[in-house]
Amino acid sequence: MAPSKAGKVAAEKTKKEKIHHPQSRKAGQLARKALRKGKLGGQASNRGKKHHFLADFYGFFYDSLPEEGVLTLEELHGLLRDVWLTRHDAELEEEKTLRRKGRPKSVKEVKLEEIKLRESEEYRTGFEVIDLTHRPTVDLFRRWDQKEVAFIQLLRFIRISSANPGSIVISRPGKHHSMVESVEPSLADVEMIDS
């Protein structure tokens, strides 16, 4: 009588689950394979988190675009200072009120304070943002589907700071052909830098 199909599968399964000596080459190979798989999974997770943060960051500026035209440098500073940097204030205040007197800060409160401190220091020294004062950049940015973060690399970026609010530094000129063709600063760019 021939063994059943389920019996064959069970027999093959026991062959594959062979136990190896801990010091054997095969055990070392399996350990290296598991370590590599774990590292790749961790890298994929980190990439996903970074992609999600960047999509939120650029999405904020996309939602802040005016219906027509471009922002002025003062409006861009106000947007960054009054909206982006204060986005965690309500949540931070709630965490402070929930904490009982004499208790240490919660992990969430510490993280929010670190984010706020890091971003305000970055704004003081020079915060890199999409140049919403540059018409070709804004026109191209309006075509973004709000999903593909790689599209953002086509845009022009500037660095603005609270220490010197009247000046800008072009940190990335943009890779789109409309940006590459016009490397010379426009009249509006010169006026912003001079003011």
TrEMBL record:
One GO CC term, this protein: nucleus
Region (Disordered): 1-46
Alphabetized InterPro entries for the sequence: Tma16, Tma16_sf
UniProt family annotation: Belongs to the TMA16 family.
PANTHER family cross-referenced by the UniProt entry: TRANSLATION MACHINERY-ASSOCIATED PROTEIN 16
Protein name as annotated: Translation machinery-associated protein 16
